Backbone:
């Protein structure tokens, strides 16, 4: 688009009546534009030689240029153009001057300078020839001139170009050209250094964020810098100095690639696929059309030169229009930045063209307008990406907050549901516990108290028990009932509290029999598994022991002791009565000892008897940590009236 704007902005030459020569000796500082000193001859066939254009018949066809611009422009043409430049040196000393053509994409330039012997020094150079063909190494075309004292010369230039034919020619003093060249390279270094920094920074952002928009921006900046380097001659000087065909079409191809990258960047940055789907379809068409242009440029550079520039120019205008539409009608702030960035890029060649047409003065801004506009475009595009990142971050933060609020609401609702479910489960568990405890008590009363009463009733009905024995049976039944009730009392894992309950219940009975009770208990660890069911098992084991002592041992003293060791808690009950044979009692088939063993096993404990002439010692060992229950055993007692008693030793 830059080349097209340059071609459209510069007017064609017009013919004048008089020719005039430039006195090179009067150029002491700076430079002079050569446009008004040129006489021009068009060569449509491109076959004329230097000898031909000097022949009188053709020499008269040269037309002097009268134009306010600093450049001669013929747009896109297949013709070759001959430029005749009369120079003189009115001073007494030879002068050296530098003729510069400041348009680096001219394909073919022939320079012819007369020598003292009447011959011409001819040089052929151009972007389509190797860089080594240039007499003076510069990104533009510079031809050194030496004019003898009081001499007049006519210099001829033959120019032909695949791209637009633009000839901004100046005559410099060597010192001024060197200064101008140095300053120009400094500006170029500043621009390409900034472009390199933008490429590196955004490439790192792409690697870190994995967002393709940064890679598209890197591609756009790289192709933009490459396009400008092709237009201003740096690419020919440093990147591809020996190429021919590629040098001719490099600027066009690079500009096509730049606009493809710009269109892709615009689609991603402005989200045209969702925001303006119809215009996005047009963007896709432009991308496809631009991708086809390099094929024509390679096959027929001269034929496709203007179509390539025209389509590239239209792509630029449509890109600007789509961005403006999104900014105005869709109210996209990022589109405003995008349009401003692209407009800065367009202003660059406009300023250069207005300078060459002498509408604007020659200054730093108009001389380097393309670089300044491109640099501002890169910076504003980077700012647009930063703005886009902030928008995405704010949107992501807002989404996270909304998600957190939604999650918190869902969590609260779920917590409420779980609370209700937990309450229902607690109620169900409570009812199940009550039901199980009720069933346990009913089973215990049926198997224990009910069995004892039924057995006693049958014996009484047959007249085998006297009143004292009946009373004893009834007392035992009452003790069983009280024991079952006591097991329901919460003992909070305290074994000593459970034993105290047993002492309270059996104390009066022991006193009535004249047996002394020695209570030698010590503190023991808490038993977390001591629930009513397990408490009843312990009470039944100890009750059985007390009952056997009272009934069969003729003891006068019972000792109850507790202790703890590494294996668990120990409860010992010893008496001073007559002992018995433990092995014989276990093998006799009696229920008392075996019931005690099974009850101890069901709560993960062990029971042991030691008996001799000095008395009997029952040791009940209980675990601190509950073990899985063993096989079920009858929960009720085997009453002395009906059990098979063991025989004391």
Residues:
């Amino acid at each position: 688009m830059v080349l097209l704007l340059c071609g459209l902005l510069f007017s064609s030459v017009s013919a004048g009546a008089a020719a005039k020569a430039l006195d090179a000796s009067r150029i002491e500082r700076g430079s002079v534009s050569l446009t008004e000193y040129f006489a021009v001859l068009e060569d449509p066939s491109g076959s004329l030689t230097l000898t031909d254009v000097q022949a009188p018949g053709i020499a008269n066809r040269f037309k002097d240029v009268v134009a306010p611009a600093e450049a001669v422009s013929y747009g896109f043409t297949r013709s070759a153009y001959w430029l005749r430049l009369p120079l003189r040196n009115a001073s007494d000393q030879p002068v050296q001057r530098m003729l510069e053509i400041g348009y680096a994409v001219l394909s073919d330039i022939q320079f012819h300078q007369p020598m003292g012997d009447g011959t011409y020094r001819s040089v052929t150079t151009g972007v389509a020839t190797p860089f080594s063909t240039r007499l003076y190494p510069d990104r533009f075309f510079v031809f050194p001139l030496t004019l003898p004292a009081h001499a007049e010369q006519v210099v001829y230039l033959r120019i032909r170009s695949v791209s637009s034919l633009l000839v901004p020619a100046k005559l410099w003093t060597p010192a001024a050209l060197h200064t101008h060249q140095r300053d120009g390279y400094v500006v170029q270094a500043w621009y390409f250094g900034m472009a390199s920094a933008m490429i590196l920074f955004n490439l790192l952002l792409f690697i870190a964020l994995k967002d393709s928009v940064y890679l598209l921006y890197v591609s756009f900046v790289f192709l933009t810098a490459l396009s400008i380097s092709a237009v201003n001659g740096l690419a020919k000087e440093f990147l591809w100095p020996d190429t021919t065909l590629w040098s001719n079409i490099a600027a066009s191809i690079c500009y096509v690639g730049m606009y493809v990258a710009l269109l892709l960047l615009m689609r991603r940055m402005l989200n045209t696929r969702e925001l303006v789907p119809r215009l996005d379809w047009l963007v896709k068409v432009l991308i496809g059309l631009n991708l086809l242009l390099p094929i024509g440029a390679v096959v027929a550079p001269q034929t496709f030169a203007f179509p390539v520039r025209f389509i590239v120019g239209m792509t630029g205008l449509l890109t600007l229009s789509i961005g403006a539409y999104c900014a105005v009608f869709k109210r996209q702030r990022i589109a405003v930045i995008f349009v401003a960035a692209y407009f800065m890029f367009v202003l660059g060649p406009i300023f250069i063209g207005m300078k060459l047409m002498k509408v604007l003065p020659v200054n730093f801004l108009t001389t380097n307008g393309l670089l300044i506009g491109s640099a501002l475009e890169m910076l504003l595009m980077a700012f647009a990406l930063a703005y886009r990142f902030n928008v995405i971050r704010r949107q992501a933060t807002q989404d996270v907050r909304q998600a957190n609020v939604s999650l918190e609401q869902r969590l609260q609702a779920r917590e409420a549901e779980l609370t209700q479910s937990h309450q229902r489960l607690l109620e169900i568990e409570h009812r199940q516990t009550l039901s199980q405890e009720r069933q346990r008590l009913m089973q215990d009363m049926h198997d224990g108290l009910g069995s004892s009463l039924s057995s006693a009733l049958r014996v009484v009905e047959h007249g085998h028990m006297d009143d004292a024995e009946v009373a004893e049976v009834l007392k035992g039944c009452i003790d069983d009932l009280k024991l079952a009730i006591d097991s329901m009392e919460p003992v909070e894992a305290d074994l000593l509290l459970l034993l105290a309950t047993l002492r309270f219940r059996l104390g009066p009975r022991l006193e009535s029999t004249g047996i002394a009770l020695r209570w030698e208990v010590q503190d023991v660890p808490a038993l977390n598994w001591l629930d009513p069911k397990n408490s009843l098992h312990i009470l039944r084991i100890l009750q059985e022991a007390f009952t056997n002592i009272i009934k069969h041992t003729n003891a006068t003293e019972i000792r109850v002791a507790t202790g703890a060791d590494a294996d668990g808690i120990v409860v010992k009950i010893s008496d001073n009565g007559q002992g018995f044979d433990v092995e014989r009692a276990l093998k006799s088939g009696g229920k008392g000892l075996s019931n005690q063993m099974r009850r101890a096993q069901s709560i993960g404990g062990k029971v042991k008897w030691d008996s001799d002439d000095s008395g009997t010692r029952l040791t009940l060992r209980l675990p601190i940590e509950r073990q899985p229950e063993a096989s079920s055993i009858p929960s009720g007692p085997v009453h002395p009236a009906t059990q098979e008693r063991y025989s004391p030793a």
